[in-house]
Structure formats: C-alpha cells, structure tokens
Amino acid sequence: MIFSLFRKDPRRTIIATLYKKVATASREPGLYASLGIPDTLEGRFEALSLHMILVLRALRGMASPADEVAKDLTDAFFRDMDASLREMGVGDTVVPKRMKKVAESFYGRAQAYDGPLNASDDVGLASALGRNAYGAEAPATALARYALAADREFKTVSLDVFLETGPVFPMPEAFA
C-alpha cells in the first residue's frame, strides 16, 4: 500500500503534459512581437489566461471525461499561479489573498470572452481583449482573430486527439 504513493499517476501525467503545452503556447514570441501583448508579468498572465480559457471552452464541448480533465487542468493552472507567487517572494500569509484576485481575474476574463467567442463576435472579443491584454480601450483585433481561429479549430478535435497531441494553436504571426 505504501508503494502506491510512489507510483506515477497516468492521469496526473496527462494533465501535466496538457498544461505544459498550454503554457508553452502562451509563451509563443509571436503573441508579444506580432499581436502586441505586452511582454510583462501582467501580459504573460493575460496570454496564459486566454489560452487556458480557449482550452477549457474546447473541453466543455467534448464528451466525458472532458469535464474531469477541465477540472484537473484548472487545478494545475491555479497550482502554477500559487507557485509563481511564492517564487516571486510573496509571503505565505498574502498568497491566499493574491490567489483570490488571480481567480477573480481569470474567471472574469472567461466570462467576458465567452459571449463574443460563442457568437464569433470579433469586434466584441477585440474590445474585451484590448481592455484586458493591452490595458487600453484600443481593440485587440489581431489577437481576437487569433483566439477565434483557435476556438473554431478546437471544436473539430476529439478528446482523444486533444489529450494525445495537445491543443495546437495557430501561429500568431499569421494574424498580425
């Protein structure tokens, strides 16, 4: 029984691999150089949040056990955010307060992007992304086209393929 603690959980490995692919996609240099996301701590959070939201939306439309995968992936995201705060030197007593703000920001963005993504509303999505990713009232038109293209593509992928290959995001430079 004690040896089971040292075995690798295949589900945990799948989630870790999936999260790593999402995080890697959010660090694509073209997002910053071509699509204008600021290469700052806040900009990196915006890019990661956008990619997580797109993947979670895709999982929402897939058959079971996609809902469990989405939950585990969300947990991985928040564990990573917690670890990042601690690496930046945020004290143990402050981390929960900061994590609450991170969660509010993430879920607020998910709600703000959901409607325009559902309606394929590039103008509405560009406006929301401009406020969040750019921190300005200027619309993020190219970033919105990128997100809509990824969202459309993910609707054509099965859960098995999604877990095997991971999410394949378009090249940001194609939308600049």
From TrEMBL:
Q: Which domain of life is it from?
A: Bacteria
Ubiquinol-cytochrome c chaperone domain mapped to chain residues = 34-169
Protein family according to the UniProt entry: Belongs to the CBP3 family.
Read off the PANTHER family from this record: UBIQUINOL-CYTOCHROME C REDUCTASE COMPLEX ASSEMBLY FACTOR 1 FAMILY MEMBER, UBIQUINOL-CYTOCHROME-C REDUCTASE COMPLEX ASSEMBLY FACTOR 1
**Name assigned to this protein:** Ubiquinol-cytochrome C chaperone
